[in-house]
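Per reviewer request, we include the raw input and output of the structure prediction for the construct analysed in the revised manuscript.
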Amino acid sequence: FRSSRWEVTDAVDVRDDGFAEHVRQLRRITDGEESFGSGSTYEQATRYYLKYMVDECAKRARSASRGLPSKVDLLISVTGHSPRITILAYKILLPSRLVVVPSDDARDSFNTIHRYVSANGLQPADISHRPCDPTDPLSIYRIVKDELDSHARSRRAGGIAYIDITGGRKVMSATAALA
C-alpha cells in the first residue's frame, strides 16, 4: 500500500543514521518490497516497528514534549485495529496502569498490546480491556467515565490520568474526550 504519508520519511532527521535506515526499511516492508516474517504487510511492518523503532520514537516524542509528568498513574487508550498508537503512548508515558478501550472487533490489536506492555513493564493485573461498540457514544462515555471515577477514588492525593484518543474511530475519540 502506497500513501503520501510515507513521503515524510525522506525528511527524517539523520543525526541517528540507524533510525533513518529503520524508517526506510519500514517503508519497504509496508510497500511490500521486502518482508519481515509472515502475515500481511501491515502485520509485518507492525512487528518491525515494535522491534526496532518504537523505543526511539518514544524517546524523541518525550524529548520534544514539554511538561510531561515524571509519573503517570493511568493511561486510557481508545484503540482500533492498530496496536501501534497505544504502545507508543505507553512507551512515552510509562503509566502504572493501562486501560485499553478497543472496538469489539479489535481483539488482535488488544492481544498485541497486552503481550507488548506485559513484556515491557506492566503486570497483567495492571492492564484492563474494556471493549466498546464504536458506534455507541454512550457506551464509550460510560467506560471512560467509570475508569476515571475509579481512578479518582483510588488516588486520594490526586494522580495523573491521560486519555489517548488518537487510535480510535472518530465517534470513539470524540466521546472519550467528553468524559
